[in-house]
Amino acid sequence: MRLTSHKALRRGRDPRSDKPVFRQIADHLREAIQNGTLAPGDKLPSEAEFVAHYEVARMTVRSALQQLQTEGLVLSEHGRGVFVRPRPQIRRLASDRFARRHRQEGKAAFLAESASAGAEPTVDLIHVREEVADADIARRLGLATGEPVLVRSRRYALNGSPVETATSYIPARIARGTRISEDNPGPGGVYARLEDLGHVLGHFEEEVTARMPAPDEIEILQLRTGIPVFCLIRTAFDVTGNPVEVCDTILSSDVYVLTYDLPAR
Amino acid sequence: MRLTSHKALRRGRDPRSDKPVFRQIADHLREAIQNGTLAPGDKLPSEAEFVAHYEVARMTVRSALQQLQTEGLVLSEHGRGVFVRPRPQIRRLASDRFARRHRQEGKAAFLAESASAGAEPTVDLIHVREEVADADIARRLGLATGEPVLVRSRRYALNGSPVETATSYIPARIARGTRISEDNPGPGGVYARLEDLGHVLGHFEEEVTARMPAPDEIEILQLRTGIPVFCLIRTAFDVTGNPVEVCDTILSSDVYVLTYDLPAR
DNA sequence: TAGTGGTCTAGACCACGAC
DNA sequence: TCGTGGTCTAGACCACTAG
């Protein structure tokens, strides 16, 4: 980026504006990013260059850059510089992604979709254990208080970048002693095993919320500042209407577009 | 909140931690908020009190508070103090919210849901005009380039607080000269009028993304720092599979839970 | 080693809110 | 008026990256 002259900004506030100086600088840069003057991946001028150009203190420049960072427009790399955030490859999650026809191809949902998108999927951080369900999970699964559930946690990555964590809860009375309790539940995943066991799936209910990530989520998903997460809580019901599984998923929101089909009647 | 003594934090960094001081302060406060020591609505100690307690510069305290603000945990009010963010009343959007049986009650979706939730709904900022569709809208509506669309913009509020903006795009060849072009489209809303005109609705496709809001969105939805927005782009199809409307909706994510029903087959 | 961003200090003046 | 947070300055030292 070439710094053009903005005399009005020098020596304190622009008299034509009551906006704080750091906001005016942030607005300049935001506009440059949105109109393409600064393209994704481009390096911004250094803080020192901004200080010289605008004739302000370094903290004022940093406030402007911080503002853009919390908007998710730029990212800073210690020792390298500040860059316009590149747009990651987008993953679309379709509402039919748990349809039986997909399970019958023998692949779990994540692996099947990734393969078709041409990215290299990996799964790690698998923990499988039994616990007493917390109040919310127990309510969703219709469990008695104190009833045990099987908890399956895993993290999914594409081309080495984490994109999603998921934690499944299955009543222990269903899962105990079956392949669902093993690290690898086999072809088609947990849902295929549930159907093998006679719990034919009828439908799913999915709740979607969004919020800023907690520090532990930033770490596990390697998130950048300014990127919210989607929280999905999905309940699987069998054909008789009984809940058989709850899955709590955290998605990095810059990677995902969720698509749903809604009925008109 | 009563400030307990944290000698380890005084006089610079805790030698047992390589975390920056402002992060340690933020972590303390985050924990107090999450374990309930600081309840929603509570006032935090003033910056001056933190400065005296931790024996750090004011900017260090402000960095910690800024951190919590971008996480959406606290909000600051100029001249009053910093407060633990109160949780607003939640609205659930169900996937059957555009079902015909709801339209037939004669109410548009937003008003019908709000009434049942006991909140006072208002709609303002209505603009109705004809424009040339941009590339994305034209693609979704299957329009020729340059073909005009009717654009309907409005903002919805509950009990005086804005919660949602929506912009509808309807091909002008369908809407022109009908009640759809008027400010008040009549009972049941635009969808009811489309069906009156013979465009019987078949289904909707909804795309959900989340991101940090742009400054104009912060203003129009009166958002606080640290709250992402949902972006919904919904396309309405008639029973013959032709798109008849696209609706672009921005939701404040701390007010909404989206719920969807997914098929298992 | 030079340049970058990350943290921190110790002040200053201002704008807003409550009393 | 006084206490609050908002902005800004002019430095300092540190940690990371690159050549």
TrEMBL record, chains A, B:
<dbReference type="InterPro" id="IPR028978">
    <property type="entry name" value="Chorismate_lyase_/UTRA_dom_sf"/>
</dbReference>
<keyword id="KW-0238">DNA-binding</keyword>
<feature type="domain" description="HTH gntR-type">
    <location>
        <begin position="19"/>
        <end position="87"/>
    </location>
</feature>
<dbReference type="InterPro" id="IPR036390">
    <property type="entry name" value="WH_DNA-bd_sf"/>
</dbReference>
<dbReference type="GO" id="GO:0003677">
    <property type="term" value="F:DNA binding"/>
</dbReference>
<dbReference type="Pfam" id="PF00392">
    <property type="entry name" value="GntR"/>
</dbReference>
<dbReference type="InterPro" id="IPR050679">
    <property type="entry name" value="Bact_HTH_transcr_reg"/>
</dbReference>
<dbReference type="GO" id="GO:0003700">
    <property type="term" value="F:DNA-binding transcription factor activity"/>
</dbReference>
<dbReference type="Pfam" id="PF07702">
    <property type="entry name" value="UTRA"/>
</dbReference>
<dbReference type="GO" id="GO:0045892">
    <property type="term" value="P:negative regulation of DNA-templated transcription"/>
</dbReference>
<keyword id="KW-0804">Transcription</keyword>
<dbReference type="InterPro" id="IPR011663">
    <property type="entry name" value="UTRA"/>
</dbReference>
<keyword id="KW-0805">Transcription regulation</keyword>
<dbReference type="InterPro" id="IPR000524">
    <property type="entry name" value="Tscrpt_reg_HTH_GntR"/>
</dbReference>
<dbReference type="InterPro" id="IPR036388">
    <property type="entry name" value="WH-like_DNA-bd_sf"/>
</dbReference>
<protein>
    <submittedName>
        <fullName>GntR family transcriptional regulator</fullName>
    </submittedName>
</protein>
